[in-house]
Amino acid sequence: MRATAPSVLLCVPATLLLASLAGAQTITFSPLGFSGGPSESYAWGISTDGSTIVGESPSPASGSQPEAYKLVNGTRVLLGFLNQSNRSSVANAVNASGTVAVGFSRYNNTGVFFEAFRDAGAGPISLGDLAGDPRISNALAVNADGSVVVGYGTAISGADGRRAFRHTAAGGMVSLGQLPGHAGASEARGVSGDGSIVVGLSTVGASSTTALAFRWTAATGMVSLGDLAGGATYSEAMAISQDGSTIVGNSVSEEGGAAFRWTAATGMVSIGDLPGGDAQASAQAVSADGSIIVGNGSSASSGFDGEAFIWDAANNMRSIKDVALAGGAAVGLWQLNSATGVTVVGSEIRIVGNGVNPDGLGEAWMLTIGSGGSTCHPDFNGDGILDPDDLADYITAFFSVPPAAAADYNGDSIIDPDDLADYITAFFVGC
User: Fold this and answer.
1) Nearest residue to 310 via CA among 332, 280, 340
2) Which residues pair with 379 in a beta bridge?
3) C-alpha 100: how far from its chain's center?
4) Measured between alpha carbons, how far is residue 126 from residues 89, 129, 138, 385 in Å?
5) pLDDT-derived band of residue 3, with 50, 70 and 90 as boundaries?
6) How far apart are CA 377 and CA 394, in angstroms?
7) How many angstroms separate the CA atoms of 292 and 276, rounded?
8) Residues 365/332, Cβ–Cβ less than 8 Å
9) What is the structure's pLDDT at 187?
């Protein structure tokens, strides 16, 4: 942290010091560690109840290959493999209560072919594949009670043979086809809590660079969600809220790549990218009620690796690292490249994602924002009330010698008069 000498004196009108607004937040950053093999880990989802995180990390059994894991209330559980002679597996998603994980694992003795699996606690069970060859399938999402799994399989041979599927115990793996009039591949990326709505993308013709997001129900089949205006013909739906109201993903606008939010009332609406970036944002996950979206974008400082973001209607898109720093979380020299899961549990928002730790190793992480997931950053002392004590505490932190790390209010790693000005502005705006 580089500090510069403060040189600003601000006079605060006394009447404005009487504001008192609820909405404190306590922000905690937690590295998620490794599974005992080479030091690398990824988190791909979190259960709605917040109990379980799923992902992949090399283990002693898998060697340099990944093994699917669950973190259940902080305890690591390795899920194993479909084939003990070719050990590699990844958990992509988990149901609402954390009891069912889905993903993919290699199934043959050699090679890289893989099949979708469902694990309800007794190890991964293959879901098979569609009728094509070679057998390649992947489970990417699961509904709230774990009974409906969606992803993609191989329906016919060839580059365009991939098809979105919906799997149930009664019906097995069923292809959802393609968008009407399209001759390309399709993938299912998300499913609503009751399993009735599936979202994903369907390519237009043979080119995988031209695709449209879809929404599927048994009554309508695949229906295109369109794309953002002004850019190339491309959109993909990455996730749907548990209540089925909100679909998120990415598309291309006249400014470049942008994350989007779709509802029946608004259609597809861009939520943009982080400031100063190269317009490469993608929404990866959404809370159960659709109010909070997370993903990865690009910023002036993120470079090719990207930067994790959080979006809500009141605050728009913000860097998760900036939010963490503003809340005093111990993020340090971490790069937070992408956010892949989000849930609201009681008074907390819990976000999981992937990044690079201070040792230069890829590692999964979790950020917890307390007190109802409040985004009231000016509540500096975190007591749930925005009042003159917060202003006094911030000024004390700012003018300490050296300044306290939490005084870097704008998260630019420099404590200077801009931080003081930004805090005072936020304090008087309120929450």
Assistant:
1) 340
2) none
3) 19
4) 12, 9, 10, 52
5) very low
6) 11
7) 22
8) no
9) 96
Q: Which stretches of 73-171 are assigned E, i.e. beta strand?
A: 75-80, 89-94, 101-106, 114-119, 125-128, 138-142, 149-154, 162-168
Residue 258: strand pairing partners: 251
* DSSP label at residue 241: -
The position carrying tokens 């909405």 is 23
What is the helix (H) or strand (E) element at residue 319, kind and residue range?
strand 316-319
| pLDDT per residue as tens digits for the range 244-287 | 999 999 999 988 899 999 999 999 999 999 988 788 899 999 99
How far apart, in whole angstroms, are the C-alpha atoms of residue 76 and residue 135? 30
For range 176-181, the mean pLDDT: 92
What would the two tokens of residue 411 be? Answer: 């998260």
Dihedrals phi, psi of 388, to nearest 5 degrees: -60, -25
Burial of 5 by CB count in 10 Å (0-12 exposed, 13-18 middle, 19+ buried)? exposed
Alpha carbons 167 and 89: distance in angstroms, whole number: 19
Vertex 201, ends 197 and 205: CA angle to 5°? 135
**Contact between 1 and 412 (Cβ < 8 Å):** no
**Phi, psi for 168 (deg, rounded to 5):** -135, 160
Nearest-angstrom CA–CA distance, 364 and 357: 9
Closest to 189 measured CA to CA, from 211, 160, 220, 204: 211
Around Cβ 276, how many Cβ atoms within 10 Å? 10
Enter the tokens of residue 163.
């098809």
Assigned token pair, 380: 């500096």
- Would you call 419 helix, strand, or coil by DSSP? helix
Rounded to whole angstroms, what are the CA distances from 162 to 27, 101, 159? 42, 22, 7
Cβ burial of 145 (10 Å; 0-12, 13-18, 19+) is middle
In the predicted model, is pLDDT for residue 374 greater than 70? no
Q: In what order do the strands lie in the sheet with 101-106?
A: 89-94, 101-106, 114-119, 125-128
Give the tens place of pLDDT for each residue, 11-56: 333 222 222 222 346 899 999 999 998 899 999 999 999 999 999 9
Query: What one-character DSSP code corresponds to residue 213?
Result: E
Q: Which H helix or E strand runs over 340?
A: strand 335-345
* pLDDT tens digit sequence for 87-105: 999 999 999 999 999 999 9
Which residue ranges make up each domain of the chain?
1-24+376-431
Residue 24 near residue 379, CB atoms below 8 Å: yes
